[in-house]
Amino acid sequence: SVPAPETRAQPEVPVAANFTRYRIDPTSSRAIFRLDELLRGEPKTVVGETDQVTGDILLDLSTPSNSRVEEVRVNARTLKTDSSARDGAISRLILRSEQPENEFIVFKPTAFEGLPARIVPESAFGFRVTGDLTIAGITKSTTFQGSATIDETGRLVGTAATTVKRAEFNLVVPSVPFV
Questions:
Q1: How far apart are CA 107 and CA 160, in angstroms?
Q2: What is the mean pLDDT of each run of 10 residues along the chain (179 residues)?
Q3: pTM, 2 dp
């Protein structure tokens, strides 16, 4: 999975009459992945994360269907798990993020759907955002499912998640005797 859970975005100056721009705040946002592996014959769920996430959400509170998500970027070089050896393998061998063209996982949204007819502050709402996800030089159309709310301070707080199949992005886990 490549979700962006607990995204907290600060409101900024309105973009147009009805839009408010929310910028993803890296001090309280995370991109997280989970994967299952066999490690020394035992099943293990690995969790990796980074706070190096950027992007903007433009909400039209009066007509939510006009809202949009702009490009979201995750610095793949900064993903960390519980093992520095695994982190090195992920960076060098799987994501190849040491190569400049693979430094970022990039999501370019093409549709922001499933929003309610009206967004009410402090009331959760669901959404789907579809777009082109690029990982290690491979781009595939991907849909994230999410939910969000505008909290009591006016911040947009939410989560979005999807499932990514390694084979679809040519992400090959090295074959070593204990994995």
A1: 12
A2: 44 62 92 86 91 95 92 97 91 93 97 94 95 97 97 94 92 69
A3: 0.85
